[in-house]
Specification:
The protein has 355 residues and is of the alpha+beta class. It is 41% helix and 21% strand. The protein is built from 13 helices and 15 strands.
């Protein structure tokens, strides 16, 4: 039987095509292209890793186009083989991420749906507060000169031979925007508790060819106390949401988020299935807001990059981080470039230094 389905895992616009001419146009001249032909749609889906609970999702062609028809350079398997190990990389298509997020339960695996009226109402009470915080960060970007004048940033630029004002490292963009995000708490209060949450983002607009830097601080004892249940994770989630917010403000349609905390990626990949703490409004908000962005057509993918600080201090961590980074089948920056910009986002989220 002639092959009718061509699955493009790595190419200009990964996905499934029904003619070779269409598929060929997606892989010709594309470095490291990976693709294969199949006689059934189910086999093609399985090759790309569109699976749920170990079973392949099968759709007719019209349903496929509706669900996976978005342009996306990051479709791929949830795991890939590298040497003798299987490395989990959490890369899924934005469409699969949307399905995974919608299936999250609150109160355990038998709890209520993440989009239930009760959960949505709880999130809506906090939404305006965070929208105001994101708008404040967006309206007051960090001046690049304030970063480049810092000694620690100068050392990073020298170490990696990258100038923050030279955006040529982003010439091979695979999405409308690239973001490096980080966040956390100061952890200086009683019992090592945080008194504030700091989050920051480095965002490169691939259309305008512009790089911007953002940072925001939330203080305990204000309207944001509900975020302090897990201030470090909350900071990471807020940084990711800030990058999504800014992309929408700029009218950008696809976003690759680099992050050394892999929890948000696990929300998207389906590895995280339930919120057990019923008062974890921060996480409920993150997932529901991510659903809103995805439903609104913003393609979002998370790329794991190891912490530059931790990796540089330990060769074993550096080697492991490099292997995990390279295993992710998605268009991305060179590893050292990713480490550098991860370090810059870390500096933006540094509570001990004021910019």
């Amino acid at each position: 039987m002639a092959k009718k389905f061509y699955a493009i895992k790595i190419g200009k616009t990964p996905g499934i095509y029904t003619t070779w001419d269409e598929a060929k146009s997606q892989v010709d001249g594309y470095p490291g292209a990976k693709y294969k032909g199949f006689s059934t749609l189910a086999e093609a889906e399985e090759f790309l890793g569109y699976q749920s609970n170990g079973k392949t999702n099968s759709f007719d062609e019209e349903s496929w186009n509706q669900l996976f028809g978005m342009s996306d350079d990051s479709r791929g398997q949830a795991s890939v083989e590298k040497t003798s190990d299987i490395i989990k990389n959490d890369i899924v298509s934005p469409s699969q991420a949307l399905l995974n997020l919608r299936n999250v339960k609150v109160g355990g695996k038998n709890g209520i749906g993440i989009q239930s009226a009760q959960v949505v109402a709880a999130c809506q009470e906090k939404a305006k507060l965070l929208e105001n915080a994101f708008e404040a960060a967006y309206s007051n970007p960090v001046d690049i000169s304030e970063l480049t004048s810092r000694e620690d940033v100068q050392k990073l630029m020298s170490k990696y031979n990258i100038d923050l004002q030279d955006t040529s490292v982003f010439t091979n963009c695979h999405s409308d925007a690239i973001a490096f995000v980080d966040g956390g708490g100061d952890k200086v209060g009683a019992n090592f508790e945080s008194t504030r949450i700091v989050f920051g983002a480095v965002i490169y607009d691939c259309r305008a060819k512009e790089i911007s830097f953002y940072r925001h601080v939330l203080e305990k004892g204000t309207d944001f106390d509900w975020l302090f249940r897990a201030s470090n994770v909350a900071g990471e989630e807020l940084a990711a949401l800030l990058s999504m917010y800014i992309c929408r403000k700029k009218g950008l349609n696809s976003l690759a988020i680099y992050q050394d905390n892999n929890l948000p990626a696990k929300y998207f990949s389906g590895a995280f299935k339930a919120i057990h703490n019923m008062d974890d409004v921060a996480l409920m908000y993150f997932i529901n807001k991510a659903i809103d962005y995805l439903e609104g057509g913003l393609e979002i993918n998370f790329i794991y990059v190891p912490s530059e600080h931790a990796a540089s201090a330990n060769k074993a961590k550096m080697d492991k981080g490099r292997n995990m980074y390279e295993a992710q089948e998605i268009g991305k920056l060179i590893f050292e470039q990713a480490l550098f910009f991860n370090a810059i986002s870390d500096r933006l989220a540094d509570f001990s230094l004021s910019l």
